[in-house]
């Protein structure tokens, strides 16, 4: 089946004053994929995502999200996407259950908190405050909030930064489940192992330009075909495998 673009970015440019942060980039995200934006700090990933999310103005270019133009129909785009809030958005006096109720109310959607918390294995924390959660639980909760409006696409900006290996793997499983249930996922990450395992396709961004877009497998095959070889012989396991093997793979609350 031909892949359908759910996001189309054409000739996107973003200037901050004299500084040209995004330099005429074009790409498509296909419906139902996990699409990764990879690149060093300052490459322009967050700027690009925030423009697609209708949270930031562009300088020029055209963006279509699920058939709607960011210039003409930002409200329809907002209804169809899920974006992670910064931690500051979680009112400190409300517990997780109350926060979900609040967000559901803002969307005008009747979702029960337990239904949303169950999706991210946090029902036992329904009465906890956000600040009382571990790093992995915070990320899972914030992903739950992106799903309240049954979005067509969710955007995750570095969702596993600072998490331990188990919490990262749990989050990868969760992100795959979200993709498998039909939601397109756009993610940024600085972890190449994560992108290789999780992303269906990745775009490398550097200095405000897209260098190349392909599947992780194709990128690696192309590099190997060009004669590249790792200097050191690769071991059959790495230290992360040792960590997981010694400390277990189950959901952890620590
Ligand atoms: P990171 O991986 O560190 O999150 P990024 O790829 O997301 O980086 P952006 O946050 O999009 O990069 O920033 C791209 C460039 O634009 C950087 O040089 C940054 O300093 C600059 N920039 C971002 N926001 C603003 C702003 N509001 N005003 C001026 N310059 C900005």
UniProtKB/TrEMBL annotation:
It comes from the Bacteria. It is found in: Cell membrane. Residues 7-232 form the ABC transporter domain. GO terms for molecular function: ATP binding; ATP hydrolysis activity. InterPro entries: AAA+_ATPase, ABC_transporter-like_ATP-bd, ABC_transporter-like_CS, ABC_transporter_ATP-binding, P-loop_NTPase. Its main location: membrane. Keywords: ATP-binding, Cell membrane, Membrane, Nodulation, Nucleotide-binding, Translocase, Transport. Belongs to the ABC transporter superfamily. This is ABC-2 type transport system ATP-binding protein.
